[in-house]
C-alpha cells in the first residue's frame, strides 16, 4: 500500500506550490478585511451595550445573542444561498469577508463592552460634567482607556478569525483550505496537502497567539 506521505506526492505538491500560495494570499487578505469589519461592528455594538438607553442595549443583545448562538457555517450559507433570492448577488470573497466580519463582530462587541465597563464610572461622570456628549465621552475618554484591557482578547479573536476563514472552502471561496482540498481531491494526495495547509495556518496563528499571551502577562503585571 502506498504511503499517504510518499515522496512523489510531496514532489507533486512542490511543483504546484503556486496553488497553495494563491490560497494563502486569499486567506491573508480575507482575514485582514474581516478583522477590520469585525472591529468596526464590535466597537459600535460594544458601545451600544454600555448605553443607558434600553433600546440601544436591546439592539446589542439581539445582535450578539443571535450571531453567537448560530453556527458560522449557517450564516455564510444564508449569505451565499439566501441573498440571491432577494436579488442581492455578492462575490464569494465578499460573502466570506462579510460573514466572518459579522460573526466575529459579535464577540468583539462583548470584549469592547467588558473593557468599557472596566473603566471607572468616575471617568464618565467627569466627562459629562465637562459637557462631553455620550459619544464624545466614549471617543476621547473611555475607549482609549479600555483599549489596554481589550487588546489581549482582541488578539485571540484575530487568531480564531484566521482559523475560521476555512469556512470559505464550503462556498468555493478560493481560500487556502479550498485550494488545498481541491488539489488533494484531484490527485488523491491528501497527506502532504493537509500537512502543508496546517503549517501555513500555524505560521499565522502561532505568532498571534504568542503575542496575545505576552500582552496578557504584561497586563497582569501592570494591574
UniProtKB/TrEMBL annotation:
<dbReference type="InterPro" id="IPR043429">
    <property type="entry name" value="ArtM/GltK/GlnP/TcyL/YhdX-like"/>
</dbReference>
<comment type="similarity">
    <text>Belongs to the binding-protein-dependent transport system permease family. HisMQ subfamily.</text>
</comment>
<protein>
    <submittedName>
        <fullName>Putative glutamine ABC transporter permease protein GlnM</fullName>
    </submittedName>
</protein>
<keyword id="KW-1003">Cell membrane</keyword>
<feature type="transmembrane region" description="Helical">
    <location>
        <begin position="188"/>
        <end position="209"/>
    </location>
</feature>
<feature type="transmembrane region" description="Helical">
    <location>
        <begin position="24"/>
        <end position="51"/>
    </location>
</feature>
<keyword id="KW-0472">Membrane</keyword>
<feature type="transmembrane region" description="Helical">
    <location>
        <begin position="72"/>
        <end position="98"/>
    </location>
</feature>
<keyword id="KW-0812">Transmembrane</keyword>
<dbReference type="InterPro" id="IPR010065">
    <property type="entry name" value="AA_ABC_transptr_permease_3TM"/>
</dbReference>
<keyword id="KW-0813">Transport</keyword>
<dbReference type="GO" id="GO:0006865">
    <property type="term" value="P:amino acid transport"/>
</dbReference>
<dbReference type="Pfam" id="PF00528">
    <property type="entry name" value="BPD_transp_1"/>
</dbReference>
<keyword id="KW-1133">Transmembrane helix</keyword>
<keyword id="KW-0029">Amino-acid transport</keyword>
<dbReference type="InterPro" id="IPR035906">
    <property type="entry name" value="MetI-like_sf"/>
</dbReference>
<dbReference type="GO" id="GO:0043190">
    <property type="term" value="C:ATP-binding cassette (ABC) transporter complex"/>
</dbReference>
<dbReference type="InterPro" id="IPR000515">
    <property type="entry name" value="MetI-like"/>
</dbReference>
<dbReference type="GO" id="GO:0022857">
    <property type="term" value="F:transmembrane transporter activity"/>
</dbReference>
<feature type="domain" description="ABC transmembrane type-1">
    <location>
        <begin position="24"/>
        <end position="212"/>
    </location>
</feature>
